[in-house]
Amino acid sequence: MLRKLFKWIFITFFSIFLIGLISAIYFSYNSNHFYQLREYFNQNSIVINTDDNLDINRVNIYWVSETNDGQIIKNGRSTGLIFKEYGPNKFTILYERDTIKKFMYYKSNNWHGHKHLISLSKEKNKKIEVSVQIIGPDIN
Q: In the chain, what are the domain boundaries?
């Protein structure tokens, strides 16, 4: 009885070790999959709210880090770009072709996910006001 228990424990731990070893080898050769896995568990998101007199389809957002950059919102919709890097993360919000807001925060761990809430409002004949709220562990 005891021998069967030890055999079962050995097979279980050996299987876990083997799965871990295969996973480590796979992710070392396919680092893009590791990046996607990290994003799946700790997602960044952007939610944009606009007043009725502003067109969300004219909103574009660009992102820059020390190692990557790109457009994360194009014409009011996500481009699917994963924006998840360690260090300073800088964002530029444009309405049509005008820069209306720039902001940044320092990400101390690239596993951290953040929710970015962006509100745009405009009263008649006035400039666009932008409010940014970031929810996450790395907020300054």
A: 1-41, 43-140
Q: Which residue has the tokens 């809430």?
A: 117
* Low-confidence winner among 13-17, 18-22, 48-52, 56-60 (lowest mean pLDDT): 18-22
Return all residues near 127 (Cβ < 8 A) that are at least 6 apart: 100
Nearest to 46 by CA among 128, 107, 138, 134: 134
133 membership: H or E segment, kind and range? strand 129-135
Cα–Cα distance for residue pair 46/66, rounded to 1 Å: 20
Global pTM reads 0.73
| Selection from 106, 107, 101, 94 nearest residue 132 by Cα | 101
CA 110 distance to own-chain centroid: 9
Yes or no: say if 87 and 65 are a contact pair by the CB < 8 Å rule.
Answer: yes
Confidence of residue 39 (pLDDT cuts 50, 70, 90): low
pLDDT (tens digit, 9 = 90+) per residue, 108-136? 988 888 999 999 999 877 889 999 999 98
